[in-house]
From TrEMBL:
InterPro entries xrefs: AAA+_ATPase, ABC_transporter-like_ATP-bd, ABC_transporter-like_CS, BCAA_Transport_ATP-bd_LivF, P-loop_NTPase
One Gene Ontology molecular-function label: ATP hydrolysis activity
ABC transporter domain mapped to chain residues: 7-245
GO BP terms in the entry: L-amino acid transport
Coiled-coil portions: none
Key words, A-Z: Amino-acid transport, ATP-binding, Cell membrane, Membrane, Nucleotide-binding, Transport
Pfam families documented for this protein: ABC_tran
Family under the similarity heading: Belongs to the ABC transporter superfamily.
Protein name: High-affinity branched-chain amino acid transport ATP-binding protein LivF
Superkingdom: Bacteria
Presence of keyword ATP-binding: yes
Amino acid sequence: HAPPAVLTLSNVEVLYAEVILALKGVSMQIPEGGCVALLGANGAGKSTTLKAISGVIDSEDGRVSGGAITFDGRPIQGHDPATVVRSGLVHVMEGRRVLQHMTVEQNLIIGGHMFPSTQAMRRAMDSVYQAIPRLAELRKRTAGYLSGGEQQMLVIGRAIMAEPKLMLIDEPSLGLAPRMVEDVFAVLHHLREQGLSLLIVEQNTRVVLEIADYGYVMESGRIVLEGQAQALRDNEDVREFYLGLD
Ligand code: ATP
């Protein structure tokens, strides 16, 4: 029998600028400890879905205009992003925004601003280094000089400073060389094995369906298809039509 859901979306609608209905009733579930892929073409509404969940949609003149979002058994729609992070849900946005002139360690410290004491923050930092050893090697390096893959690991590390239960991550492979994509997904795989639940938005369908157990495909603000990752990988029509695989 299935593990309980850590995150549930029921018929979620998002309205931008009070006129553009970008999500038209999206429903999905992330099981506790699960890894779910959110797929679809540009403009389908994948990033909007993540922003609705984490609450950052507000700062983009958007709002959840219908439906319900439940995290860890509690409704979270309309909560501000800081409250959502404190409840154990982090959102790693597209674009790998590191603080360019600061070191890896300083970037992590900024992710740990919520800790009540330096010791607690140190402990969190050590657990990040344990989870992503590459960051420990790079700790004194200036973030702006890291490779794309290393910067992606850094933003993931900064997010796990918040000791989350669920991570939403938007296009982790964007613009990375294939080798780096593998390294970043190895990090995600490892975090997942340590119990983190994951919702991953990815254009790189092939690589994300290797680590996900389940996938949803979006088109024009709706879920048009869902299923076990294995089944999505194997279904010929799905591969061609929705996922662009041949
Ligand atoms: P991409 O991979 O290109 O980010 P996506 O599937 O994540 O695509 P969204 O970015 O969620 O798609 O966009 C969904 C729809 O909402 C698009 O039609 C987009 O133009 C629109 N949209 C996104 N952000 C805003 C905004 N701030 N104001 C108005 N419309 C927006």
